[in-house]
Amino acid sequence: MGVIKRVLYRGDILTRPRHRNLFLDMEENIHIHYRDLRIELSRNEFEDFVRTFTVQSRELTEIIDEQNYRDGKFANANQNDVRIWTESRLRSEVKYHPTRLSIEECGDGYHIHYRNCKFLVDPEDFHRIAALLKSVDLDAPYAETHADVLELLEANEVDFVIDEGNAPPEKLAIKVAKYHLPKVRELFNYIKFAPDDSPSPMAYQGSQLRVEMRSESKWSSADYRRMRGLNEVVRIADHLARHQGNIDPNEINRIKCQMLDLYGRLEHAGSTGIETDVQKWLYDPRNMQVIFPFSQQRDTQKTDLSKLYREWNILLNSYGMSFIKPGKTSFDSQTQKRIQQKIQDSTNRLAAAFSAVTKIHIMGSAARSMMGIYEVPFIHGKLAKLGSDVDLLVEIDPKRESDIPRHWKLYNPKASNHCAIYHLGQIPLAGTTQNWKEQFPNVTFLDHLLDAYVYLPSSGNRQHIDAFLHRFSARCIYERNENSVHYFGEQEQRLADKLTNLFGFNKPRVEPLNVSTENGIFLVVANGTDYILKLFKVSGNYRTQRLPEHVRYEQQLIEQLRARGISTPAVVRAGSAADMTFDGNPLLLFERQRGMIWKRPEYPTERIAKVLAELHAVQMKSPLPLPTDFTFDELCMIWLPQFAAYADAGSDMPEVSGALRSLEPRCEPFHNGEFRGPLYATSPFVHCHGDVAPKNVIIDDDGCAHLFDFNNAYYGPRITDVLDGAFEFSLAEKYIHLADFKRFDRFIESYHAANPLNDPERNDLARWIDLTGIIKFTKELKAGLEANRVHPENLRIKRAVAIANFLNHRTNIA
After folding, report:
1. What pLDDT score was predicted for residue 234?
2. Domain named Aminoglycoside phosphotransferase: which ranges (predicted)?
3. Which of 87, 394, 438, 640 is the least buried, fewest Cβ under 10 Å from its Cβ?
4. CB-CB contact of 781 with 751 (8 Å)
5. Separation in Å, CA 728 to CA 15, 695, 724, 744, 803
6. Contact at 8 Å (CB) between 211 and 144?
7. DSSP symbols for 607-642
């Protein structure tokens, strides 16, 4: 870059470039088109260009990779700069219009021809340029004053700082980076400042100003750039307002990325002392850095993240900046082919492997083989995308709308085309990019996001969908038929082979169900029938080594309950000699009970309690001829010592520590088996379900309730099963914010109405509540302490504390 003698005009007044193309064509001569520029070349000139560019670009690319060059790191600093002169001398002269200047008004705007180059200028921009040229004063004096010289130094991007001795308006004292001294000397020579003979500091004298400068070699170009940026800091709200409609797409996404990084930091750390009022945030445009000041108020409370995010989005939306894509570099043809195969494989695994899916269409960049990497992360809402999305439209079987795969993450329940939008998963980034994670460690970056518009026939419009597919030139990449069976993974493929051998199925579909259990649960579709496959990996109310024994007990219990008229999904039997294990884990195949699971309050408590009452009543009338090897007392001997261990160890969490201290006196008597024995005698013994929770109850289309999943079944006092249900329906499973222990007594009374509790059970209800509550508290605490993130906000910790609070409020220590 040459030395700027005088800035005749500088300002961001133009519209964005109209074109984003680089291409060649050949008409009366050869053209290189780059955005709004066209260069006309003869054949000899073109061959010159190709030869020189090929050699120099290869050489420069190697240096870029070797030095890990980043844009702007040494901008105009003449430090660590690189110039490639290899074969730089062109062999041919300019052939077409070497002396021409032509300005033309055309159908697509104004054309400015300068020698063999043509610039396309929008009419609006051209009128601005013409007006500016009229106002330019070519005879205006060069910089003379203190302010003018400072402005000229900054226009030349000289690395300098104000030095001691600076005394405007008569004297300008500066420290200049050593590598810029030649440039500064040349500059002062151009603007007619005479050098002074004094050796130190160097000095130049103008008509109105003396300039003294010293050499500085300690700071880097990046240091100077940061220091210059501090002089240009503005409120970010003002910056966005000033550049409304004309902000650089890469810049706004970099700004959003910094905000998302702050959001992630606050999400993990809570209060950090940072100012969270978006109107007080600052911005350094030169370095594209958002500055989050420290708050004047030392607020130790957790930041309201939803409010912060809402205010930030209001600011962006007010300037039309909520959805702006950054620049993108498309992959080469070979990479496009590789990623197309990955798209097909991922689509088969994440979508086509599920029986609810009938068709899959691909759209957008993936359909056009225009996948690529963004120049900066594309921030869309709270999503930070490194590469192009893979856009799909997935059609769902109208009979299986309730079977949408649970691992799909709902992003938007209703888009403009009346489809729901789900995130299906990711495809690894096909190319290399900057290590954005180092710059923004609190942001979760996405590679190629597999996005799906999901068409549900019950709520969609077929004509709208067909028009949508046509508008985006979508193509179908999957249509379900008997032979198009795909699997989510290798495990599902092997399970399908196993089921074929056990039950004689023909190409069964095996689909993982994303449910809250460590056991493997799968939907199996075979021979036109739905089944549920359960792969037992963990035990419930018993030791892990007894898992195979309990599975046999569970199967026998279900079969005998069904024989007594209790409606629960049947176990599908294989041959007597069949190996009912997979990778060493027992398995059972169940008939599928259609219906819905009532996930959150308010629950149909009366119907559910009545089903439990019937399950107990048939046994009280006529005991089941089953072994009684799994007992409630064995359960007590597992969980009561575990509670004692937690109480002895204490906890760093005040809520947990307080709960343990308050429950310890209640638990103490139950450690003695002689104390438990008389209590057991008050309640009839039955084979209990063991996990009476909303997740284990299906409500069918007729409104009837069906209990299933006897993985925690045991033989013991029926009152423990009743109270287990009372606790679970009060806690509302994962909806802990909807917990309400008014449902506790309601559940007991609903059960009592169908199968009355006896007087001893009711008289000893307080002790039964203590015993079952302490066991349930201990189970929840164990699950919470074994979670990846142990903190008071953990769901299982919250449930444990809620149980303790209820016990302390409900009963007094005997």
Report:
1. 87
2. 510-724
3. 438
4. no
5. 62, 10, 6, 9, 10
6. no
7. HHHHHHHHHHHHHHHS-------SBHHHHHHHHHHH
Length of the chain, please? 814
Domain boundary among 259, 290, 318: 318
Which of these, 132, 44, 56, lies nearest to 88 by C-alpha position? 56
C-alpha span between 574 and 588 (Å, rounded): 10
Contact 340, 477 (CB under 8 A): no
Residue 391 has pLDDT above 90, yes or no: yes
The pLDDT of residue 814 is 38
The answer on pLDDT for 770 being more than 90 is: yes
CA 538, 543, 547, 551 torsion: positive or negative?
negative
For residue 176, CA distances in Å to 4, 203, 222 come to: 17, 12, 14
* Structure tokens given for 130: 């013409």
* Cα(553)–Cα(547) distance, integer angstroms: 10
Give the separation between CA 814 and CA 802, rounded to whole angstroms: 21
pLDDT of residue 224: 79
pLDDT in tens, 342-369: 999 999 999 999 999 999 999 999 999 9
**Rounded CA separation 377/379 (Å):** 6
In the chain, what percentage of residues exceed pLDDT 70?
95
Do 531 and 410 belong to one domain? no
Task: Convert the pLDDT of each residue in 641-659 to its tens digit.
Answer: 999 999 999 999 999 999 9
Q: What is the pLDDT of residue 74?
A: 41
d(CA 38, CA 119): 7
Using CA atoms, how far apart are residues 475 and 496, in angstroms rounded to an integer?
A: 30
Quick check: is 189 in a domain? yes
Do residues 811 and 770 lie in contact, with contact meaning Cβ atoms separated by under 8 Å?
yes
For residue 568, count CB atoms less than 10 angstroms from its CB and return exposed for 0-12, middle for 13-18, buried for 19 or more.
buried
Residue 287: pLDDT band by 50, 70, 90 thresholds?
confident
Say whether both 110 and 167 belong to one domain.
no
Do 639 and 743 meet the contact criterion of CB atoms below 8 Å apart? no
Q: Given a cut of 70, is residue 298 above it in pLDDT?
A: no
**Same domain (yes/no): 660, 795:** yes
- Which of 542, 569, 591 marks a domain boundary? 591
The amino acid at residue 567 is S
Can you give the CATH number for the domain in which 690 is found?
A: 3.90.1200.10
**8 A C-beta contact, residue 164 and residue 212:** no
Residue 613 pLDDT more than 80?
yes
Same domain (yes/no): 435, 347: yes
The per-residue DSSP string of 166-189 comes to -BTTTEEEEEEEGGGHHHHHHHHH
Same-domain status, 358 and 246:
no
- Whether 140 maps to a domain, the answer reads no
What's the domain range around 175?
146-230
For position 197, which CATH number holds? 3.30.460.40
Q: What type of residue is 1?
A: M
Residues 446 and 310 in one domain: no
Residue 813 pLDDT grade (very low, low, confident, very high; cuts 50, 70, 90): very low
Helix or strand (DSSP H, E) at 590? strand 585-591
Structurally, the chain folds into a number of domains equal to: 6
Q: Which pLDDT band, with edges at 50, 70 and 90, does 231 fall under?
A: low
Query: Which tokens sit at 48?
Result: 């010159």
The DSSP letter of residue 726 is H
